[in-house]
Amino acid sequence: MQTKLAxxxxxxxxxxFRRRMSSFNYNSCIDVSQEVSEALRSHSPVVALESTxxxxxxxxxxxxxxxxxxxxxxxxxxxxxxxIAVIKGRVKVGLDQEMLSEFASLKTPAVKTSRRDFPYxxxxxxxxxxTVAGTVIVSSAVGIKVFATGxxxxxxxxxxxxxxxxxxxxxxxxxxxxxxxSGIKSILDIDRTLEYLETQGVCVVTYGQNKNFPSFYxxxxxxxxxxNVETPAEAAALIEKLLQLRLNSGIxxxxxxxxxxxxxxxxxxxxxxxxVKEAEDHxxxxxxxxxxxxxxxxxxxxxxxxxxxxxxxxNNAKVGAQVALxxxxxxxxxxxxxxxxxxxxxxxxxSVEQCATKSPLIVVIGGSVLDSVVAVKETSILI
Length: 383
Description:
Elements: H1 2-21, H2 26-29, E1 30-32, H3 34-41, E2 46-49, H4 52-55, H5 62-76, E3 80-87, E4 90-93, H6 97-105, E5 110-113, H7 118-123, E6 127-130, H8 132-142, E7 146-148, H9 159-162, H10 167-172, E8 178-181, H11 190-199, E9 203-207, E10 212-215, E11 218-224, E12 227-229, H12 232-245, E13 251-254, H13 265-281, H14 289-300, H15 304-333, H16 338-348, H17 352-358, E14 361-366, E15 369-375, E16 380-382
Parallel strand pairs: 1-4, 2-3, 2-7, 5-6, 7-8, 8-13, 9-12, 9-13, 14-16
Antiparallel strand pairs: 3-4, 3-6, 10-11, 14-15
């Protein structure tokens, strides 16, 4: 009985302090869908998805079709998709089909939303497409460990002069989330981005038999990652060790685009160079640069880059779901919740089991939030 009580208390204490230390006040900011909430509570596999790719990355209706297909890919692997977006000033984790359809139609424009934008977008009751950075923040806050997307942002070409560096890199360096992508968007400076990721302490790993780092539309960039893993189980074991260490930094799992869907390197590079030049000529700056260049590349390649983009996103979602499934198995097979025990010990200098046997607790639980933990002479549990 004492062991069961200690296990129960440990999980509730961990959930409480996770919420207290997260970036958001749940009750006032975030709505987690019932499906995602139940999956997280039961330690079932969940894969986060961003929404900027819907609001800014693709034209309608291709954006909606892709969003629905990507969620289906994740479900077919046995995981739960959690598309993250801001709708009418509320952060939503898990969108139903009606929400997705309304959001993708852009009848109400969406703001490209990263860390700096959340206060404004929420306070004004606006819609927001979460960037990789924004999605990483929310994923970390609610406890989602795996996030699949197309490509990571990075250091823009000429960034040594403009200092235009995506917040994606900073957030991945401060949140324990694994981003599964086809590397870094090839419209960016991949070499400098990899250097910046190293500075941020992000573990960069390729998925496959070698360390060849992908270049979004093509399987190879001519650069290498420090490490590689070959299976979902290996990737999940890597993530589990990151979580056990509580480094509060993330992992970039770089998955090459399938050869059959890849573009020819010379063709895509020519299109990118032309698009970058057009952005400069039009004075495009800041967060508008990436959407502008991507749309120009689609036009310059006759839509072939969009087809490749959709294919790689689906492939990344499949790999992400497989990794999340293996991670869930590892965590469910673990006899102890090492992370929750570590949080309790670091805060109180003792284990939950010691508290349960030596210092009885009064635990008042209101809904899903642990309100207080006070040592008393007799044990009382009020639910």
